[in-house]
Specification:
Largest sheet: 7 strands, parallel
Strand order of the largest sheet: 3-2-1-4-5-6-12
Helix content: 25-40%
Mean pLDDT: 95
Strand content: 15-25%
Shape: elongated
CATH class of the largest domain: Alpha Beta
Number of domains: 2
Length: 270
């Protein structure tokens, strides 16, 4: 039997962290060798399985990313921009595959991720599900086929605990629509409306964000013209779809050269 690929999960106590840990524990190709949490977190020092309310998994939650990532072959990371930047440096030093599902990163953050990718495989995506990445590809094609008489609106909904808006997936869809139109999203994005805003600017790409309850993730791309509307939609009902995508990305990255990739590469859609 081939050796299992050694994986570290960051933000292990979070919704995605726990989901990823559970799937790795069931995998026949991956082995959980580290679980990270922030300094002084209540889970630090506990077995990750016990902390999650189950049986021991033989991995103690740590607050020391330097020691844990040094022994990793892959890092799966759904945390915060500041944490992800630090993990990217350590993954690069370890030449470990870095799977990034963190959203809300600035242009400066992305430049630091790019620098790390010169030394390791980085797969970064605002959403790691197969369905969403197909939606991104379709959005680009439809935007290219329809002229700016069709207004584009991206409507996204997530659970009440999500801290960034628009979602990373919504921004992926916005970029796809802009690419299809041959424009820069930064030039035509309309990310907030309140009060007397005036008429909609022709050619703009609008965003609307909904937060509530335990919504896993819903994204609609609306193309609206006079007399007709077309909507492309994806509704996630199980967080496992994102974790499965992250594990797929790890296995895909094993034989790849250092560089920055996304789920479109992993799924062969580019």
């Amino acid at each position: 039997m081939a050796d299992l690929l050694k994986v570290v999960v960051t933000g292990a106590s979070g919704r995605m962290g726990q989901t990823v840990v559970n799937l790795i524990n069931k995998s026949e190709k991956l082995e959980l060798v580290g679980a990270l949490e922030c300094l002084n977190h209540e889970w630090v020092g506990q077995d990750i399985g016990v902390a999650m309310g189950g049986s021991e998994l033989g991995v103690v939650v740590s607050e020391d990313p330097i020691e844990v990532i040094a022994n990793a072959e892959a890092v799966i990371d759904f945390t915060t921009p500041s944490a992800t930047i630090e993990f990217s440096k350590l993954a690069a030093q370890a030449r470990a595959i870095h799977i990034i599902g963190t959203t809300g990163m600035s242009e400066e953050d992305l430049e630091k991720i790019k620098a790390a990718s010169f030394h390791s495989v980085v797969v970064r995506a605002g959403n790691m599900s197969l369905g969403v990445n197909l939606l991104v590809a379709l959005t680009k094609k439809v935007a290219a086929a329809l002229d700016d008489e069709f207004d584009i609106e991206i409507i996204e909904a997530h659970h009440k605990h999500k801290v960034d808006a628009p979602s990373g997936t919504a921004l992926m869809l916005g970029e796809a629509a802009a690419d299809g139109r041959g424009i820069r999203l930064a030039d035509l994005a309309d990310r907030g409306r309140d009060g007397i805003t005036g008429a909609r600017n022709k050619g703009s790409i609008g965003f609307a964000s909904i937060r509530g309850g335990d919504i896993v993730g819903k994204h609609d791309v609306l193309f609206a013209s006079n007399g007709e509307q077309l909507t492309l939609s994806h509704n996630a009902t199980d967080r496992n779809i994102f974790a499965r995508g992250a594990l797929k990305a790890v296995l895909w990255g094993i034989d790849k050269q250092p560089g920055q990739y996304d789920m479109m590469d992993v799924l062969g859609l580019n």
